[in-house]
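User: Could you check the structure of this?
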Amino acid sequence: MQKTVLNEAHRALGAKMVDFGGWDMPLHYGSQIEEHHAVRRDCGMFDVSHMCAVDIAGADAKAFLRRLLANNIDKLKQPGKAFYSVMLNAKGGVVDDLIVYHLDDTHFRIVINAGTTDKDLAWMASRLIDWKLDANIAPRRDLAMIAVQGPNAREKVWKALPEARAASAEIGHFFAVQAGDFFIARTGYTGEDGFEIGMPADRAEAVWQALLDAGVAPSGLGARDTLRLEAGMNLYGQDMDEATSPLDAGLGWTVDLVAARDFFGKAALQQHGQQRQLCGIVLLGKGVLRGHQKVMTPQGEGEISSGTFSPTMQQSIGLARLPMGVTFGNTVQVEIRDKLHAAKVVRTPFVRFGKVLVNF
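Assistant: Sure, the predicted structure tokens are below.
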């Protein structure tokens, strides 16, 4: 099993460790609920060093990403600007979802999922060979990454890393900046403000301790999942995969079908269009929504892709792939342990910047 450079730091804090995509990672440090609330109300941090930063550089780097990604790399014009995108297979299924940072027109950084890293790197290398383009694909395993999230995240990062304040104080959402050894991005996976910070791996333990000393709560995979689901954010392998179109996974906003450029998987998306819709679901009674539960609607059967109990809302919530024609506000029935339970279809996100955004 692989370990991040912070593995011993997690164990020293009494973390419950679990296997996550072949990585030994902290599930929680005592209370998943308290960690969740810390991020919503104050500030928490996550070790995300298991995810892989990959630098794409060379004369044809932009041309390569123009064909590789469903979103249009030409949108990234300013240094540091970032966007979210997907890589697709020939059938229009999602190979992986990722964030891309524009460093300059010959150098981009992408961050891919831990469990798909080997597959993604092989996929990108194969496409590069097929297209005969001049670019280099370099996984940056020399880097560690810590995500610091919450309404007080930025102030606490600057308290812990005062040398990074000047460079990062003015960056907007979905921008990144290099501040000395730190690659600081105003991005995240929680529905809160904050930074995702890349750094040389040998600096990670000192940075983790400085953040602890600044009052940042260590947070594990459990809280990360409830936070991202409240924020209506997809999880690869649950809400999307190689058999699922991004159009059916609520990710149509990441796909540019308007520009003339071609990209891998575009023809399949154009041929099949959107077949299903990903919606938010709030259970109206007791119970907990979980993946693969059936959803009964007047338009046909759907399925929960992700579900959990929301600590912020004190209600069970989920993402569901439903037939076209189901509308927000509709009441549907979810099959839980062979019984049907009423649920309401809602827009996501459920929670954003600490506020509940749905009525049920």
